[in-house]
Amino acid sequence: MSVPTGIGVSHDREWVIQNAKGRKLVCDSAAEAFEELPEYGEGAVVLTRRVVRGMFVTKVVEDWKQVTPPTSWMLPPRQIVRVISGTASHQAVRHGNSPHDH
After folding, report:
1. DSSP at 3
2. What is the pLDDT of residues 53-94, one digit of tens each?
3. Which domain holds residue 19?
4. How far is residue 48's CA from residue 57's CA, in Å, rounded to a whole number?
5. Does some domain include residue 4?
6. Of 19, 11, 81, which Cα lies nearest the Cα of 45?
7. C-alpha pair distances (Å), 43 with each of 38, 40, 54, 58, 86
8. CA–CA separation, 43 vs 46, rounded Å?
9. Is 1 a domain residue?
């Protein structure tokens, strides 16, 4: 498959969150997709694909692929994220701030 190049052509990635039922939500970036992922419940995944955008056309270069979060986006060891009823509830537990540390 030839990939278009030239003036007015840009290579880009599209990002979506797909929930367990197959519904997709478009995101602007990988960071946004992984930040919002917990809100879509168990079984939700982040997908990406490469596209080429021209003046009036977007051409898919690579089909959707599932992406796992890079380790740099993982939480610090002492931070806990709980998912309650499909919504994210963040609780930071740091040394000296937990009731169990006293």
Report:
1. -
2. 988 889 999 999 999 887 655 544 434 344 333 444 443 333
3. 10-101
4. 19
5. no
6. 19
7. 10, 8, 34, 29, 11
8. 10
9. no
In angstroms, the CA 89 to CA 80 distance is 9
Number of domains in the chain: 1
Please provide residue 98's backbone torsions phi and psi, each rounded to the nearest 5 degrees: -90, 140
Across the chain, mean pLDDT equals: 74
pLDDT mean over 1-12: 70
Is residue 25 in a domain?
yes
Residues 6+ apart with CB under 8 A from 60: 49, 50, 51
- Residue 78: the pLDDT is 38
Q: Is the pTM of this model over 0.85?
A: no
Q: What span, in angstroms and rounded, lies between the C-alpha atoms of 91 and 12? A: 35
3 within some domain = no
